[in-house]
Amino acid sequence: MSSEGGKPKRAKVPAGTTLFHAASWLGIAVDSSCGGHGTCRKCRVQVVSGAAAPSDADGAALREDALAAGWRLACRTPALGDVAFVVPPLRTRPKAALAGVGRRILVQPAVQKRYLELEPPSLEDQRADLDRLLDALDDVQPRVPLAVVRRLRGRARASDWRVTAVLCDDLLIDVEEGDTTARRFALAVDLGTTTVVATLLDLGTGQPVATASALNGQAPYGADVISRISALDDDRTALAALRRRVHETLAQLAGEVTAEGGVASREVYEVSVVGNVTMVELALGIDPTPLSRAPFPIAARRLPEARAADFGIPAHPQAPAILLPAPGAYVGSDTVAGALASGIALGAEPRLLIDIGTNTEIVVGSSRRLLACAAPAGPAFEGSHVTFGMRATDGAIEGVRIVGGEVRLDVIGGGTPAGLCGSGLIDAVAALLDAGVLDAHGRFVDVDGPLGERLTWHGAARAFSLHNHVLLTQLDVRQLQLAKASIAAGWSVLCADLGIEPAQLTSVILAGSFGTYVSTRSARRIGLVPPVPDDRIVFAGNAASEGAKIVLLSLPERAAGQAILAAFEYVELSTRPELDEVFLAQLDLDRRPRPLPDRTDTPAPHAGRPPFGPRRTAAPELPPKPPNRPSCPRIKGDPH
Ligand code: FES
User: Fold this and answer.
1) Residue identifier of the C-alpha nearest atom 4 of ligand 1
2) Which of the residues 272, 462, 476, 607 has the least number of beta carbons within 10 Å of its own beta carbon?
């Protein structure tokens, strides 16, 4: 397909995908004010090959000569085989906004406002109030809820028939007195297990007005999704409590951003919510218990229409909640949002998206094919279950370099080191690997000089002193090895399924708050990411949150987000017979393949590997306890 005068683009889409969705998928904007519902008649495209018989909607919208020339409504025309078509330029040039991973999004929100000066009724014109309004909205035929008819009566008369119709996609959600077209807002929510982020958007400008984040109020029920689900086993009333808690978090955040932006909650006409499947199901009051047991069925890959009120979000009472689909139990709508924001499905070149977290989501592919899986990485990257681990806050060592035998630390806030966060852990291991203090199998090695003097013991575990009491222990290195092997096994399997070598990936997109701070070099050094040059590694920040914004800003992008589900192939790693072997190969910290040593403290594949599939955050596995070890500090050169 091509935009008129533009370069032809090609996409492979599932049979039955509409031309509207196919164009959106490739980032080609098609005129629309109904979001592909067949009511605005704006989405005209010219089919040049691959005959598409006119639909009834085409017949009603287009003249005979236009039909004969191949013109069709893109949203009513399915691609049933090879189809070539031309998309005419947009009649109005919408604003563009930068969003996602350096993407330029044309601002075409679903929320539209139309100021109307209606003729008052008379004996000569006794049309119904609603007909009077709908006749004035000549290019859309919206659905109308009863609540709007109820309000129309009084508001039309109180404003002398000068009203603003508020449309969300193909739904008339309100009629307001006077001209309110300058004010239309929406709220994008990334509903994370740990953190919830809300962004208020001005749909007129496409710009964010205010952003706020808070810890998910469900935290007392456990740090990970399996702990939250387990709460339901013990107490069936927990479902209501969990729902109430996350609603409170969402209401608090919505209140904060609207107050900061000077926006009334009823001016928020639409919300989008992305999150992992468990969080979304809990927020909607759906029992997520089956997600924790094989075969891990989800309630619905595409949830039915929901409203902001279903999430406890204070907004316009009719405000829809836009939900992206979820490919599988542990690859949710947040991953789809990340894929949308990163544009991974837009090009023909293979790319990799890794959203690092306790449950890490991995997507590999291009516009031709997308494969996705979940890898249980555990909490090491969040500084949890690391002996001196902490979250990335003031006092956390976030960077480690070794220069001429001297250890240099980057500490958040610049004060005295208090612990080690995820990026610091990766940096420390990479630096010690380079310095020869760790071998490729992650085992501490005796060395001479100032670095050797920092080798010590922490209880039964060998350790390296980064700063006085802040130690990196053998146990921590093992934790990191397990986490990175889990993730690397994930992208290795997906690349193999796609028939490519990891080094062929044209970009590696690291998403998630942790992914923003990790050093490219260190991540590659320990094999967390494939061996690609630095300039192919991209930090995407909170890609899920960006995706949630994009679906509010652009109807074509929303269509692409919905259509992308058909392209996702969810790979259940736990069923793959080669997984143990791949995982074992990835335990090494050096990306060059080496034979595995016959050592008792090298984690065995079954003993150490995190179970693929859902898991509760596991307690760290201890290496074998050496006899009569002194506690730290230890004299350099002790046998171990
Ligand atoms: Fe096709 Fe509106 S009629 S997008």
Assistant:
1) 36
2) 607
